[in-house]
Write a structure and sequence with these properties.
about 50% helix, HTH-type transcriptional activator RhaS, Arc Repressor Mutant, subunit A, two-stranded parallel ribbon, about 300 residues, 6-stranded antiparallel β-sheet, Jelly Rolls
Length: about 300
């Protein structure tokens, strides 16, 4: 059994915009309990802002605290789920890539730092003074979403764009100054991450990615080292191990089948690499993760 991939139309209550959804978080949870009761993926971009509630948001096996003012960003394909200690409230919205980019032909979602690289944190903690203004914009977007007025889609896209710009400004205040890096290096890193995501199962050597990018392996390693302080091999195997974790804990296949699906020569080699990177054998990781989640359920 594979990790479920949720689609936008599974959440829509009524006929509305084809590629966009927004709701208060408490209403979203109430309406979609069955869909989001277990770890899942999406085929869309997601943003959620909390103004009340506490708990933990797990994204690709990393846990982040939920507090008032927390804003989370998810790209298509990421696995996540929630654990709440107190009732949450806020707004959640998501949309397809086309919904945004067809309206802003000269601007891409990947240009926002919270979407363009998995190396950037998926969490922004807003300062108190910015929570109210952003919440009001999301309230206005939700009101527009529930009405049937002329130019509804254009209004919503415009509102979401102003929300993203406000979030971009707050986000860039909290991370390292990316302007110190060469724009060409950042573009190469973005292209590399896309290539790894598309090919990591079959291609695990830096040479392949350097060839696809028409640069030398040495230069590729320099780009990765100077931008995120890692090697190309480390970046490739981070993606391999992430997929292995997803399959180990969320799928029903036996571990040997999982190693084969990731195109390792044999299970013993897969187990050796997995333990080297995580400190656990595949079976040990599965037991630890499932035991932890039984405690929280």
């Amino acid at each position: 059994m594979k990790i479920p991939v949720l689609k936008i139309n599974q959440f829509e209550e009524t006929e509305s915009l084809k590629d966009f959804y927004i709701n208060s978080f408490s209403n979203h949870i109430s309406l979609n309990k069955k869909l989001i009761a277990r770890p899942h993926k999406h085929n869309f971009y997601l943003c959620v802002m909390f103004i009340k509630g506490t708990g933990v948001h797990e994204i690709d096996f990393n846990s982040y605290s939920i507090t008032p003012g927390s804003v989370f960003f998810l790209r298509p394909g990421q696995t996540h789920f929630w654990k709440f200690d107190s009732p949450p409230e806020g707004f959640i919205f998501f949309h397809s890539q086309e919904f945004y980019e067809l309206k802003f032909l000269k601007h891409k979602l990947h240009e926002f730092p919270f979407y363009y690289s998995f190396q950037n944190p998926p969490l922004l903690q807003l300062p108190d003074k910015k929570i109210s203004s952003l919440y009001k914009k999301l309230e206005e977007t939700y009101t527009e979403f529930t009405k049937n007025k002329p130019f509804k889609e254009l209004k919503i896209v415009s509102l979401i764009n102003t929300v993203y710009i406000d979030l971009l400004r707050a986000y860039t205040d909290t991370i390292s100054n990316e302007e110190s890096y060469s724009p060409n290096y950042l573009k190469t890193l973005e292209r590399l991450e896309i290539l790894i995501d598309e090919n990591f199962q079959t291609e695990k050597l830096p040479k392949f990615y350097a060839q696809q990018l028409n640069i030398s392996t040495k230069h590729l390693n320099r780009v990765v080292k100077e931008t995120i302080s890692k090697t190309t091999s480390e970046l490739i195997y981070e993606r391999v191990i992430l997929e292995a974790k997803r399959l180990i804990v969320h799928a029903d296949e036996n571990l040997t089948a999982i190693s084969h699906s990731l195109e390792f020569s044999d299970y013993s080699y897969f187990s050796k690499i997995f333990k080297l990177k995580t400190g656990f054998t595949p079976m040990g990781f599965r037991k630890k993760y499932r035991n932890q989640n039984e405690v929280h359920q």
